[in-house]
Amino acid sequence: MEVNSSHESAAAEPHSGAPTEADAAAEALKRGPVGALTLSIIAVATLFIGWILFYFLLFMGRGPVG
Fold first, then answer.
1. H or E element: which one contains 40?
2. pTM attached to this predicted model
């Protein structure tokens, strides 16, 4: 087993993730969270359509109560 091996963390590298320059960061944030907004719209629309189908197929088919 080698004891004196050197180890460098990936966090120590200058380019290890988010842009470091202000212009690059501003460019990345220009359009905003388009993917998250699209995913949330699809999820809400799917739930709403499911609720409408549940209402009309189950409750309206039974007719009025009483």
1. helix 34-54
2. 0.50
